[in-house]
């Protein structure tokens, strides 16, 4: 089922706006009547290139300046059109499935439709909405029912962003390494062989467990003692981080506050007695590692006393044993020479293995940070996009029939122009390969003219904020064609560039130069000629450069008598100045 049309009565900056998403029919609302006509330019299966079974029903780009309403449109689609919420104001959404037309909206009885349609329920089965954005602008993202929110803003609201993000990366790395030749993407989606890891400073404020503060301080002080070997020092740093991270997790789970009485909670009493009191009794600088692990193993064996934490304790033990063995092998971990809380994992297989162990042990709160150190921000962004695209597959694994609506915000964010040219085709090939037999509709927002060049004109929605603040949407003037258009022509279009394509600083500089050449006295032009010529010669645009140079030369054209008279005037000025000084 494909979203073909949307009319919004009033929502934030959008007022009486209608949007056609480039389906085989155009729809329009006039005088409370919805009409439709055939889209004569529409080409079925236009985006189904390469190998794969996924059916990409349509791709629409919403292009516009900042503040033009793109985010607001996405929000409305996510909440009300594809979601189950009902807005206060009226809206009409039209879907197409084969030759059948479906309509969703509120107060539809007030409108006439010149076509047959079926009304659909608010909650549409076999539909999956996915929102992807690599933009981080600190906005609070709410969880919309039945939507998979893979935006950076939303993921950062969770306590385990680091492990979530790196697990997404690892999932992509694993599947990509197995399908690299078959995918044949334009962009080199490569993963480094090294992953930098840093321990997060998780020192727990003992006031949350004030009755145990003496024991907690003793354990922490011992774990922070530097050892002779850097491997042992790193491992104890890790134990310190895990210990304090686990205490922080317990305080959140139990919703503890400063100086809370905890003896009334039987489960918590058992847990803290085994984790803190017993450990503090046994631990000393010589046996800290073994004592710490032995304590956790004993707790795992008698975890019926604190069933809520049984899985956590078991996974922590497994992870710590794994890291200890890895350090003992001595070839997969390279410890930072200047920082004993940082190390580098070596080898893609070990990276995948390490992350899988860690993801099961981080008690919903990260105690490690990860960094693909040799990747640029653009390469990181490419991995972010494709790892989240693949997460849709992981989340819905086994779903045979599904209508997927992919809403992607600013897909070109942080990408070099060459990659902006290639990202859409690579995304299509990736989705075709991994989205099985699903029907996929993609709606994306962008500032990039490259998106326009890759899409037919009927798949492009332009949103613009007028001087009076009104938001309008439409097409390029004279309904110009967009597909395979020259990128320079598109960029020069008034929708993208007001008052030309030159940067504002350069524009002001050139205008000022031109005014000076026209208005300065000839005498000043003569003395400043070299300076003006230097400025003119660095201008790239040849017509503009020649025009300025010709104007300068025209103003400097005068005969020898004019030059003599000019010099005489200068001599007289100097004499007068000298006489005045006397």
CATH fold topology of the largest domain:
Rossmann fold
Question: Total helix count?
Answer: 18
Quickly give the structural class.
alpha/beta
Unreliable stretches (pLDDT < 50, length at least 5) are none
Q: Going across the major beta sheet, what is the strand order?
A: 11-10-16-17-5-18-19
Task: State the gist of this model.
It is built from 18 helices and 19 strands.
Give a structural overview.
- This protein is α/β, with parallel strands linked by helices and 582 residues long.
- It folds into three domains: 2-174 and 375-491, 3-Layer(aba) Sandwich (Rossmann fold); 194-371, no CATH class; 504-581.
- The chain has helices at residues 70-81, 152-157, 161-183, 213-223, 230-253, 266-282, 288-301, 310-329, 348-359, 377-395, 417-434, 449-453, 487-491, 504-519, 522-527, 529-537, 542-555, 560-581; strands at residues 2-11, 14-20, 25-30, 33-38, 55-64, 91-97, 100-105, 112-113, 118-119, 127-133, 147-151, 194-199, 333-335, 342-346, 368-371, 403-409, 439-446, 460-465, 471-474.
- Strand 16, helix 11 (417-434) and strand 17 form a beta-alpha-beta unit.
- Helix 3 crosses helix 10 (377-395) and helix 16 runs antiparallel to helix 17 (542-555).
- The termini are far apart.
Write the layout of secondary structure elements.
Elements: E1 2-11, E2 14-20, E3 25-30, E4 33-38, E5 55-64, H1 70-81, E6 91-97, E7 100-105, E8 112-113, E9 118-119, E10 127-133, E11 147-151, H2 152-157, H3 161-183, E12 194-199, H4 213-223, H5 230-253, H6 266-282, H7 288-301, H8 310-329, E13 333-335, E14 342-346, H9 348-359, E15 368-371, H10 377-395, E16 403-409, H11 417-434, E17 439-446, H12 449-453, E18 460-465, E19 471-474, H13 487-491, H14 504-519, H15 522-527, H16 529-537, H17 542-555, H18 560-581
Parallel strand pairs: 4-8, 5-17, 5-18, 7-9, 10-11, 10-16, 16-17
Antiparallel strand pairs: 1-2, 1-6, 3-4, 6-7, 12-14, 12-15, 13-14, 18-19
Helix pairs in contact: 3-9, 3-10, 4-6, 5-8, 6-7, 7-8, 10-11, 14-17, 16-17
